[in-house]
Amino acid sequence: MFLFWSIAALAAATVFFRVLRATRKAKLDLPYVQFDGDNSDARYKEDSLSLLTRGYKEYISKDRAFAIRDPTEVEQPMAVLPVKYLDEVKWLPEQKMSFWTHIDKLSALSQIGGPRLNEEVSIAARHGLNVALAHLIEPLEKACLAAYAKELPPCADWTSIHPCPLIVKIFASISALIMVGPELGAPDSDWQALSTAYLQVAMTGPREVRDYYPPWLYRLAPYTNKNIREMWRLRARGAALLAPLLEERRAASEEAAVHAEKGGKVREGKRKYEDAVQWLYDAHKTTGRPLTPDQLVQEVLVIMVASLHSTSAVGLSVLFDMLDHPEAVEDIRGEIVRVRKANPMWTRPALAELKLLDSFMRESARIHGLTQYTAVQRVAMVPWTFKDGLTIPTGTTLVFPGYHHGTDPSVHPDPEKFDFKRHLRKREEKDENAHKFHFASAGSEDIISWGAGEHACPGRFFAQEGLKLMFIHLLTHYDFKYAESTKEMPRFVARNLFLSPNPMLPIMIRERKVDG
Asked: Bridge partners of 385?
């Protein structure tokens, strides 16, 4: 009975404050694009692309913004902006335009007890992972090959497999090494099992809550939803696994400080510990905020989920494009052989020489928007007025049309054609383009799906190198094709503002005869 009245009181209070908030909100003064006729939630989930396409043609192509339904907060429209506003948005601080608040609205994690993005996570990725990558390619390749050996069955003849779980397992193996180091993250370790299980419930649980719970019941999800309960259980188990590592890093840090005070030399090059535990420990020392085992596991898990989910989806998208464009595969295989012969082992500079593979991956990202229709998402934390007078009210989500920008003929000639050499030609046009237009480029505004400014995806370089390592082995050791039975199956599935490769689509795979 007490629970009933508690829920009733919570519902009444939530409704009251939502109504009060709605009446006080400033109106977003933009043309609103919606469906004619059936304007149901179900139609938005299945066909938001058509609305974005209409808005792009009617407004964005004329350098005007428009509004559309926000799937995370239906009573407050979302602003879709042309790229002329990008320079004003991309360097605004979190206190004015927040990316992390957008992620939290999208996932509802803070309301269901899940981990949240924070400053330390961003620092760890930008200043830890990206710096350490130069020393991590060899162990990452070993983790990738170990995952192939474990997860892919012998296939001397054509064999049907589901590539989605294979790719997830490959990146789970790579990710475990990056997250917690080689000992705790070893194949078949408790951490690998925990992280794979956590990814499944972290993808399923929040979606169930958003689909089936009214917002005023989100906070009860840890008690009523089995996947959210499992997230909490795995979080506690993860904290117990990471506690000894955290103490080890504290002790090593204190020892290094004493060594430095005595005039000892600072070690250069690769450090003893290069993993997310160390980078997060360093980030917390920078910000001065305390780091407990529970806080550490939340931050490690949020990095792990973000990198595993997005990179696996992008990898599956690239694989489907390779299946659709076999004419490119032989050229890429030839490039891999040439580069490998010139390099005794795979390193970051060697991977950077795979320019044709890189161009193919970037073309896939252009066509599919890195699995999202929108990019550079922010939530206005204060009323914001742009230089031309456009005002965004507090609490409004604003986005840029990343998918349509990537397929705009004024940006990309012949945009409907999958041209796997498109970005390689751009890099070769001018000397100053040599380091532009590669897969992980976020500063080139021909593709904005990586984000921009301070919140350009900090893990994109890890994704770039991990994907290349995965495709090097796949392309040199296997042939692959679509199964005849999949001709009618969709390659991609749309849901709200996301375009995901079909995880249920099987393919045929066969071992290649490799010379030598």
From this structure: 391
Q: How far apart are CA 379 and CA 395, in angstroms?
A: 6
**Percent of the chain that is helix, strand, coil (3-state, to 5):** 60, 10, 30
Assigned CATH topology for domain 119-349+471-511: Cytochrome p450 (1.10.630)
Which three-class secondary structure state does DSSP give residue 450?
coil
pLDDT tens profile 44-72: 999 999 999 999 999 999 999 999 999 98
> Contact 299/282 with Cβ under 8 angstroms?
no
Report which residue type is found at 399: V
pLDDT tens, 37-48? 888 888 999 999
- Put the strands of the sheet holding 397-400 in their side by side order: 66-68, 78-80, 397-400, 375-380, 97-98
CA Rg, the chain, in Å? Answer: 24
Hey, what amino acid is at 225? Answer: N
Up-side HSE of residue 231: CA atoms within 13 Å toward CB? 26
Q: Residue 485, Cβ neighbours under 10 Å: how many?
A: 10
Enter the tokens of residue 158.
Answer: 């054509």
Token pair in block for residue 102: 């957008």
The domains of the chain are located at 2-107, 119-349+471-511
Q: Tokens 């005023």 — which residue?
A: 216
Distances (CA, A) of 505 to 162, 365, 488: 6, 20, 10
| Tokens read off for 430 | 């001018």
CA nearest 79: which of 65, 93, 89, 92? Answer: 65
Instruction: Quickly count: other Cβ atoms within 10 Å of residue 385's Cβ.
Output: 9
Secondary structure of residue 378 in the 3-state scheme: strand
The DSSP code sequence of 277-322 is HHHHHHHHHHH-----HHHHHHHHHHHHHHHHHHHHHHHHHHHHHH
pLDDT single digits (tens) 293-319: 999 999 999 999 888 889 999 999 999
Phi-psi region of 478 (alpha: psi -120 to 50; beta: other; left: phi over 0): beta
Q: What is the rounded CA–CA span in Å between residue 403 and residue 377?
A: 13
Sequential DSSP letters for 398-436: EEE-HHHHHT-TTTSSSTTS--TTHHHHHHHH-GGGTTS
